[in-house]
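Section 5: illustrative case.
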């Protein structure tokens, strides 16, 4: 049956089918149904009584199409049911119908043909204020599929509902309500006195897991990072086990291995930072340069003393070599020493004193340098300690990061499953609410509960 008509009478006979189409005031949304398959490979046609074509309450049969299988020898019907809807009424919001009603207000009835979106177009059939509607153009309430809105004379309300009375449509100057005995009370659809409104479920939001790094690898104990504090580094490091590499870069008074005395300014320092490792190299190079300069200086001094000794011996050789009788004046005898002997002894003795002083100074400098080298940090030790701690933190970062990724993936899977379940339940209940008018909702809910029970039972055996 075409247009707004429905099948009012249907009769099967041996030569065909007789049916009568009945025009209705309005037809709502339509939906496809089908019967069960019945066996036709029998001499009796009693099994055809099992072909139940039923659209339920508040719906009529629009079309029925038989399907027959020659090979399988079965018969079934696919049929289209359409809801019986009421004409829509546009009334002024918040006030009674009066003679002051605008010309847009009145009863709108659906036209037979549907638009490109499958929705009905409603045309004004009557006006509440006759004087305002005289010689006025015919108005329509139609769905604009381009903008996704229901419109009356350019006043549109965005909504994708199939029938204007399925939800509240309120425009700037109009409101759409179903007509029931022309008293403008929203009618009950199906057996329910009020229309069910379900709120979309509150979905679970996802947030990634944050890696948990080791205490000795945090920013406040890592040189060069924002918030770094040397005292915190030393405090955390000295409490670590001896086998933890980061314990090698920390120290405090009486504890830790990273304690040294700066050979440049004599300051006692605790802990190794990256700049401290570079300073250790610089201090060692400075000591090596000081040793080289000292060796060169005292080498020059020793050469000078040797030259002075040789020149002194040359000068002493010019003196008389015989015994100095002068030494025996008043002594009454020969002392046996010449002027050369006295000069040479004086030369050697003086240079011996100078060499002794020079060697003493060199020994003192070498002792102080060795003590400074012993008390100062060692560049190799400090550098390797810092490298070992950094490698330890890299390993910790990789493990903590991988664990955070795995935890985030597991959390995302759980949330996705939970959200999918919420959405499926929400949309299933919406469908069941819409099917409540056909009388099949209770059966579907029973089947749904049975399916959920079977699913839970299957999960217990997994």
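Designed sequence:
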């Amino acid at each position: 049956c075409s247009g707004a008509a429905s099948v009012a009478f249907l009769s099967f006979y041996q030569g065909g089918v007789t049916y009568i189409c009945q025009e209705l005031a309005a037809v709502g949304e339509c939906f496809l149904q089908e019967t069960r398959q019945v066996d036709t490979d029998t001499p009796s046609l009693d099994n055809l009584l099992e072909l139940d074509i039923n659209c339920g309450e508040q719906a009529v049969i629009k079309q029925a199409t038989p399907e027959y299988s020659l090979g399988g020898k079965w018969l079934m019907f696919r049929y289209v049911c359409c809801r019986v809807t009421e004409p829509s009424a546009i009334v002024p919001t918040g006030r009674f119908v009066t003679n002051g009603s605008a010309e847009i207000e009145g009863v709108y009835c659906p036209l037979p043909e549907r638009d490109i979106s499958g929705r009905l177009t409603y045309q004004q059939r009557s006006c509440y204020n006759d004087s305002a509607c005289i010689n006025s153009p015919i108005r329509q309430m139609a769905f604009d599929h381009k903008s996704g809105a229901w419109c009356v004379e350019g006043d549109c309300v965005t909504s994708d509902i199939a029938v204007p009375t399925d939800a509240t449509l309120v425009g700037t100057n109009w409101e759409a309500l179903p007509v029931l005995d022309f008293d403008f009370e929203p009618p009950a659809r199906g057996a329910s006195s009020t229309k069910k409104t379900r709120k979309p479920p509150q979905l679970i939001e996802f947030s990634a897991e944050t890696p948990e790094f080791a205490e000795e690898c945090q920013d406040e104990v890592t040189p060069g990072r924002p918030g770094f504090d040397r005292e915190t580094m030393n405090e955390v490091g000295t409490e670590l086990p001896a086998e933890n590499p980061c314990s090698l870069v920390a120290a405090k008074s009486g504890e830790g291995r990273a304690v040294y005395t700066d050979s440049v300014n004599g300051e006692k320092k605790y802990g190794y930072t990256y700049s401290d490792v570079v300073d250790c190299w610089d201090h060692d190079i400075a000591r090596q340069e000081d040793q080289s300069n000292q060796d060169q200086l005292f080498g020059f001094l020793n050469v000078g003393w040797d030259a002075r000794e040789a020149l002194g011996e040359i000068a002493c050789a010019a003196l008389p070599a015989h015994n100095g009788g002068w030494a025996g004046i008043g002594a009454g005898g020969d002392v046996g020493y010449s002027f050369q002997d006295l000069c040479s002894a004086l030369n050697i003795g003086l240079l011996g004193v100078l060499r002794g002083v020079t060697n003493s100074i060199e020994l003192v400098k070498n002792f102080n340098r060795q003590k400074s080298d012993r008390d100062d940090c060692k560049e190799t030790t400090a550098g390797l300690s810092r490298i070992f701690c950094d490698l330890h933190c890299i390993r910790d970062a990789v493990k903590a990061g991988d664990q955070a990724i795995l935890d985030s993936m597991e959390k995302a899977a759980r949330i996705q499953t939970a959200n999918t379940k919420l959405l499926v339940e929400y949309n299933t209940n919406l469908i069941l609410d819409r099917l409540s008018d056909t009388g099949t909702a209770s059966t579907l809910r029973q089947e749904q509960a049975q399916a959920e029970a079977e699913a839970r039972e299957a999960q217990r055996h997994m």
